Amino acid sequence: MTNDKTIISKEHLETIAKYLEEIRYGSVTIVVQDGKIVQIEKQEKIRFR
Question: pTM score, two decimals?
């Protein structure tokens, strides 16, 4: 983070965007502790038709 007023870092935004682009079905979970992102999780589902 660049300063105290920055809510989310560029690195976090890039990681979230990358995960959203990579998955077709699933979820991206952002874990926050004390007002700061401490973990980003990607859960992907594979569907068979």
Answer: 0.71
Whether the Cβ atoms of residue 19 and residue 42 lie closer than 8 Å to each other: yes
Tens of pLDDT, residue by residue over 33-42, are 988 899 999 9
By CB atoms closer than 10 A (0-12, 13-18, 19+), residue 10 is: exposed
At 9, phi and psi to the nearest 5? -80, 160
Q: Which residues of 16-40 are buried (b: 16+ CB within 10 A; e: fewer)?
A: beebeeeeeeeebeeeeeeeebeee
| Separation of alpha carbons 39 and 16, rounded Å | 11
